[in-house]
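User: I've been trying to design a sequence by hand for this structure and keep getting stuck. Would you show me what you'd pick, starting by listing the structure so we're on the same page?

Assistant: Good idea, let's start from the same input. This is the structure you sent:
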């Protein structure tokens, strides 16, 4: 599967040339001719892994605006803001006809490449940067899981799943609360998709009575799809995520209360992975 990267460059012909060359390195190159449109692409396409910046380019979509010599400064500021906003790392480099004008100022910040000459080095550099990303490392470690989720879930699901896997060692109570809430959301997505695929029904058809939709689907899946051990595991994950995640279901007076810590969180993460692995395996068949 190709890795998506973004080029921000106002030269349409050059962009097409680089798009063709990128394919040989396993990249799918999206393009934007100004910074504003490029930033919008990064916001809406979270699977874009890295950015190539022109040395001088337009800041906005106003065609009357001149090309800015301080484009790279503005672009780096925008990338840093997006990294903070979405809690992700966005590698970038500069690709220009005048690299000597940028190398000193960008030393230690970004590599600078010469247009039409350094393309092979540029793409190899981006491959190295992307390979070193925490998200890439965790996707490689759980390649069997992501092979399944890539086929069945959107970019937001993938990003949330990467996030919970990257935070397996956290011990801060507030972070664990957030993580458990995220796991409940991921579980609901998994059960909804399995409902469509394994039961042949829309999840909303299970909205009746006092029980939650997810619990009702799980009850039906216990009879037709899930082994009892995985059903119990899913119910445990849903209960912990509901009671101790951001949702914070009420606990009856006198109940002995769990104090979720790192190992509770890890148990819930692995329960989710086991469900994904079972439900979306190609040889998985409903009970007869």
């Amino acid at each position: 599967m190709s890795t998506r990267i973004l080029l921000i460059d106002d030269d349409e012909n050059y962009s097409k040339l680089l798009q063709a060359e990128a394919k040989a390195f396993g990249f799918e190159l999206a393009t934007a001719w100004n910074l504003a449109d490029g930033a919008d692409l990064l916001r809406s396409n979270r699977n874009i892994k890295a950015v190539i910046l022109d040395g001088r380019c337009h800041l906005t979509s106003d065609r009357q605006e001149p090309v800015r010599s301080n484009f790279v400064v503005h672009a780096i500021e925008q990338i840093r803001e997006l990294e903070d906003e979405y809690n992700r790392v966005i590698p970038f480099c500069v690709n220009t006809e005048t690299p000597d004008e940028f190398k000193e100022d960008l030393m230690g910040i970004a590599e600078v490449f010469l247009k039409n000459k350094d393309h092979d080095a540029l793409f190899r550099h981006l491959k190295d940067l992307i390979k070193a990303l925490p998200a890439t490392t965790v996707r490689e470690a759980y390649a069997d899981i992501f092979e399944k989720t890539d086929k069945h879930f959107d970019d937001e699901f993938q990003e949330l799943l990467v996030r919970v896997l990257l935070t397996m060692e956290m011990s801060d109570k507030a972070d664990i609360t957030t993580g458990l809430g995220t796991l409940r959301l991921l579980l609901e997505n998994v059960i909804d998709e399995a409902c469509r695929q394994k039961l042949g029904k829309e999840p909303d058809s299970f909205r009746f009575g006092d029980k939650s939709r997810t619990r009702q689907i799980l009850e039906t899946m216990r009879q037709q799809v899930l082994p009892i051990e995985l059903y119990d595991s899913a119910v445990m994950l849903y209960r912990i995520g509901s009671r101790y995640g951001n949702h914070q279901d009420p606990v009856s007076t006198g109940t002995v209360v769990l104090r979720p810590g790192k190992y509770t969180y890890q148990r819930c993460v692995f329960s989710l992975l086991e469900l994904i692995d079972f439900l979306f395996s190609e040889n998985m068949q409903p009970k007869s």
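That's my pick for every position. To get oriented when you compare it with your attempt: Residues 3-132 form a domain with the Rossmann fold fold (CATH 3.40.50.2300). The mean pLDDT is 93.
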